[in-house]
Amino acid sequence: xxxxxxxxxxxxxxxxxxxxxxxxxxxxxxxxxxxxxxxxxxxxxxxxxxxxxxxxxxxxxxxxxxxxxxxxxxxxx
Amino acid sequence: xxxxxxxxxxxxxxxxxxxxxxxxxxxxxxxxxxxxxxxxxxxxxxxxxxxxxxxxxxxxxxxxxxxxxxxxxxxxxxxxxxxxxxxxxxxxxxxxxxxxxxxxxxxxxxxxxxxxxxxxxxxxxxxxxxxxxxxxxxxxxxxxxxxxxxxxxxxxxxxxxxxxxxxxxxxxxxxxxxxxxxxxxxxxxxxxxxxxxxxxxxxxxxxxxxxxxxxxxxxxxxxxxxxxxxxxxxxxxxxxxxxxxxxxx
Lengths: 77, 249
Description:
The structure holds 2 protein chains of 2 kinds. Chain A is an all-alpha fold. Chain A has helices at 2-16, 25-47, 60-64, 66-72. Chain A has one domain. Chain B is 80% helix and 0% strand. In chain B, α4 (106-128) crosses α5 and α5 runs antiparallel to α6. Chain B is globular. The chains are: A mainly alpha, B mainly alpha.
């Protein structure tokens, strides 16, 4: 009886443990926030600056990334 | 560890951007060129009509960068920046997914992750609001169109994450295949709902050549396939190497 219980516990554990050990969320989160912030800024400048909204005056940024903005699927003008 | 993955994602993304640029130069730029020719022809016709009616023609907007710059270094900048951004985001997703999505191994799980992200971030929003070439779209609706596009993208991302979480809850009760199908069905219902509810945008000029529009949208799709596809495949190797380095140290 004891042996049987022990066996079933061992089986469930073997199924639940993945081969690759997951990186703890607490270790990922600061990098995720930092990365997402930078990427959002980059996407904004290629995808929307001097189109829908404008931080820098003029049309220089818009015209420079013009073709990429169209081809990546962002509304351009 | 995560910083190392992020750096690798950044580098892989830059390479993906360069590949996308090489492809776009000869596959996408012809369609952009044709659309701009159409635009110029329309403008000239308008100017001629204004002159014939005895009115002053509208002053043309000054050209800031030549077409050669826009389709060269300009396009290169845009694609490399977006490529690097995709690479970084992908590294973060990979870090979260490692050991949480089952045991595919780094190569296949990286490819599957890239496919899901490509569908979520590009294909679903673009099915509702497809990419438009120059001269398609009225300048005064740009805010409205950009808002709707990003809204659709946010809905798409939230739906994919929601479906994933739902799948995880359903799987213990209904089994992995049945649970997955149910979660996917719920996902489809949500996406269909927003496709119907959100307003459509139809600003293609009646005279715009359909073939050019098709070629442009195909080019747009192919560029995104190259970006996500090469990030997914390359990061399979780069990410696995980062994980192996960690095990050794």
